[in-house]
Amino acid sequence: MKQHSKYCIIGAGLSGLTTAYKLLQNGENDFIILEARDTVGGRISTKNNIDLGAAWLQNYHSNLLDLINELELKTYNQYTAGKSILMYNTMAPAHYFETDPNAPSALRIAGGSLALIEALSKKFSDKIILNTKVKGISTVNQNATILSNNGIYSCEKIIITLPPKLASTIIYDPELPEHLQRAMDNTHTWMSNAIKVGINYKTPFWKANGFSGTMVGQVVPVVEIYDHSNYNESSFALMGFVNESLRALKTNNRKEQIIAYLEKYLGPEARNYSDYFEKDWSKDEFTSVKSLNSYYLTPKYGNSVFDTFYGSKSLLFSGTETSPQHGGYMEGAVISGFIAAEKILQNA
Q1: Are 102 and 130 contained in the same domain?
Q2: How many CB atoms lie within 10 A of CB 140?
Q3: Same domain, 96 and 223
Q4: Over the stretch 62-98, which tens digit does the pLDDT of each residue have?
Q5: Which of these, 62, 76, 128, 307, is most buried using a 10 Å CB contact count?
């Protein structure tokens, strides 16, 4: 037995939820969202006030900021006061610097980035179907059908918000055009090679020691780490990106290298952590694929092949990697969600 909806959105990350939000704002509520995970958010994941996925936005991310304001959420500045540390190489001493207090700061969302996901999803929580992995999509004779582990769904139009490389693993009938398949395979998945670490502390000892918590370097255990205290200053943490060269180590060995590094430069209090978390996105089956490629340059997103409908005009690809602006950021996810909703409504 098929479940029919006018529109099916695949993926309950920021892009998919933004699409649904805009559809609802325009009076369209005949849609469902299929999500393979057991929770919403996609590559936005907040644990113990630590953003293990998307964490920051900038003051020029206007679409995201407007959405945050509409949902009555708050933002606050990334903490940067005090000495920051730059490691050029293992043979040179650490370089200490201070950020200009008048310079624009990255912003964070009060309550963590997941607060945005929760505010969006609660508006149509009854339309989100979790634990539903899409295996195949058929668009034969203008009849769009989705085959999943959780049943069969039919609709007039499908919006796929998965990373293109992951979306390419779905079986399509008929097959996608070769140029589209090639573009999907060659589009780097944002976050797919990242290992993020979050460490909770009872007090922000780095601030007391005169440090901002910012440490940057390519030859150290954590290539970037920052203060990650929450909006209310009731939870204190450091959060950053682990050097991928440590991926092969056992968790305890990797953790020891990271804590020893923090201890050396921020103070002995670094060992007095209350919680330690890691998230290796390369091992997330709903983000990455087996052919993982690390990418150290800024990926090129927004390929024009994603601008059009496929499968007898019933299949549309969306998501931050497809965004013509700010691809790979939350802003890009929001823009792609707006574009998808507009295209769907124009082609209804």
Answers
A1: no
A2: 11
A3: yes
A4: 999 999 999 999 999 999 999 999 998 877 889 999 9
A5: 128
